[in-house]
Amino acid sequence: MVRVKEVIVVEGRCDKNALLRAVDATVVCTDGFRIFREPDKRAMLRALAKERGLVLLTDPDGAGALIRGHLSGLVDPKYVRHAYVPDVYGKEKRKRFPSKEGKLGVEGMDPETLLEALRRAGATLDETPPPRREPITKADLCRLGLSGAADSAARRRDLQAALALPERMSANQLLQVLNVLSSLPELEALMGRDPAERQDPADP
Fold first, then answer.
1. Fewer beta carbons under 10 A from the terminal one: N or C of the chain?
2. Contacts of 174 (CB under 8 A, 6+ apart)
3. Using one digit for the tens of pLDDT, what is the confidence trace for 125-152?
4. In CATH terms, is domain 2-126 a member of 1.10.10.10?
């Protein structure tokens, strides 16, 4: 499967699912207009943009244009690429009725159309097999004291400062960013932990 270097931003989970059938990529959802009210997520997108760049891929309707415009104003244009799907009239299978403008959204596009949209946007595509990398999990955050402990919030702030990330990020948002910016051994080194200290879940 083709990998995309940039982080792709879409409106909803169904858009994300459709995209992940076409490419191997980090995909972030705006949850529609909720992005307007979520400063933490906007800060996360700015951080991801500086590290990997963003590709904005919203629906081809008025709402999609409004969200795209809002996101475009959040990030330096040099970090942003714009991908567009064509106007195709119809109705997604999961919906009872067509959208207000009668157009299919990102979720209604086939994988070939989505891949072509990314190519035309100038996204960085790589068709070589990805290197194997152990993902960072919620259990790792707990083990490293970044979640579930009395001082976890302070530990996360110290880590975010070390990685030049914004202070206002939830544990879930930090986890998503860490899996883009870092590896588990690198995170353990930052937290001053020896990988040999990891305990097998089967051990008592």
1. C
2. 141, 146, 156, 159, 160, 165
3. 987 765 667 889 999 999 999 988 899 8
4. no
